[in-house]
Amino acid sequence: MGEPGEAKGRLIIVDDEPVVLDLLASMFDGSPYDVVACANGTEATAAMDRGVDVLLTDKNLPDIGGIELVRYARRIQADAECLIITGYASLDTALQAMELEVFDYIVKPPKDIFDVRRKVQQAFQKQWMVRQNRSLTDRIVTKNRELENTLAKLTELQAELIQSEKLAGIGTLAAGIAHEISSPLFGIMGLAEAIGEEDDLSLVRGYAKDIVEYTRSIRDIVQDLSGYSRAAEREYLTTVDLAKVVEDAVRLVQRTLKVERAVLRVEVEDGLWLQARTSEVQQVFVNLVKNAVEAVTETHPHGGGEVRVTARKVDGVLHATVQDNGPGIAKDQQALIFDPFYTTKAPGRGTGLGLNIVYRIVTKYRGTISVESALGAGAVFNLRFAAGDDRPADAPSSPE
Ligand SMILES: Nc1ncnc2c1ncn2[C@@H]1O[C@H](COP(=O)(O)OP(=O)(O)OP(=O)(O)O)[C@@H](O)[C@H]1O
Ligand SMILES: [Mg+2]
């Protein structure tokens, strides 16, 4: 091999002139190679049968010629390097040597010992580099194969992850649905109790009407869930009247939270239309208003809490805000509030899903939601949606 620390390189020297053979062999006394001196081609082939790395051979031998020995060496060891010793560097010899990719020539009689030694050493070095390259290539091929396997495993794992994320998403949604249904259920319960104690028939009728409305919203929510399980299908969109939805949402919160001590103001322009699903837009405002009411109840338990909902159209974009004068949200918490299950409320008081549902719905309609707040300074939730082109055909039209 010719490099320190590696197996000894095997150098076969062949010459039929004993003096020259002795001279050549002596040049490698003390060299790092395993040197074998052969007086003819037959000896050389026998020596090469036991291994050859570099062959240094006379071209003209009585039994087997040097060129033939080069071929033999290559059969034994495909990357064997060969050097030819010739009496004169004829064109014929040069061509043959080139054809066989002989490493170099040495002209006889070899006068410069150092030149011969250097050429042999270079042959060993070239061979070492070729072998290094080959082993590197082999390692790269193996590594590549390993990487391909890893990639295949990763792709498989990713598919599993996507699947479990989808399942987790359905789990989150199911919990959210339970959360959403619990509000109207709570309202129905309160109204049913009120009906039991109410003698005024007109009030009872009003309560009954509200119960029907709550039941409808539960039905809508259930329909949403079945809609989600068919997520791949194209959803049915309607033109939503924002003013009405906000009004419904605020009313729902007022009923379920008993917000006598907070002032709720709604400033929503008429004629704001949005391509969406009514129950989803309602969910957005129910959650935001519910949070706002819960927030102001915390800081103003005896009154003074204010919640303001606004909506208007600016340059074809719907801007809606839900503002409160509650405790506000610290800057570092603002990035977390839209995460599922993030809540600062006591166990049993909040699931931490409200804002996550809001975020999902808003982004689903390519809208944006952001919060402006500072501790002690209340909070403003800003929503933006692309406005629907126009009032729907089935909306009540003004007299012409
Ligand atoms: N208007 C607000 N003012 C102050 N903090 C708020 C406001 N809205 C949300 N937060 C904070 O964000 C958290 C997450 O709100 P989110 O609506 O997602 O869950 P939650 O209200 O805690 O529980 P729920 O699932 O019942 O809605 C709240 O716990 C609260 O700390
Ligand atoms: Mg909430």
How does this model look, in words?
- This protein is α/β, with parallel strands linked by helices.
- Helices cover 51% and strands 18% of the residues.
- It has helices at residues 18-26, 41-49, 66-76, 91-99, 113-197, 201-229, 242-257, 278-299, 331-334, 354-364, and strands at 10-14, 34-38, 54-58, 81-86, 104-107, 238-241, 262-268, 273-276, 305-314, 317-324, 368-373, 379-386.
- A five-stranded parallel sheet has the order 2-1-3-4-5, with helices on both faces. A five-stranded mixed sheet has the order 7-9-10-12-11, with helices on one face.
- Helix 5 (113-197) packs antiparallel against helix 6 (201-229), helix 5 packs across helix 7 (242-257) and helix 7 (242-257) crosses helix 8.
- The longest helix is centred in the middle third of the chain and has 85 residues, at 113-197.
- It is rod-shaped.
- It binds adenosine-5'-triphosphate and magnesium ion.
- The site of adenosine-5'-triphosphate has 22 residues, from helix 8 and helix 10.
Task: Label this structure with key terms.
10 helices; 400 residues; binds magnesium ion; 5-stranded parallel sheet; disordered C terminus; binds adenosine-5'-triphosphate; 12 strands; alpha/beta
In short:
The protein is 51% helix and 18% strand. With 400 residues, the chain is an alpha/beta fold.
Provide the residue-averaged pLDDT. 84
The count of strands amounts to 12
| Tertiary shape | rod-shaped
What fraction strand? 15-25%
Strand order of the largest sheet: 2-1-3-4-5
Low-confidence stretches: 1-5, 162-170, 227-235, 395-400
Spatial separation of the terminal alpha carbons: 101 Å
Give the ligands present: adenosine-5'-triphosphate, magnesium ion
Q: What's the order of the H and E elements?
A: EHEHEHEHEHHEHEEHEEHHEE
Based on secondary structure, the structural category is: alpha/beta
Q: Sheet bearing the most strands, described? A: 5 strands, parallel
Share in helix: 40-55%
The total count of helices amounts to 10
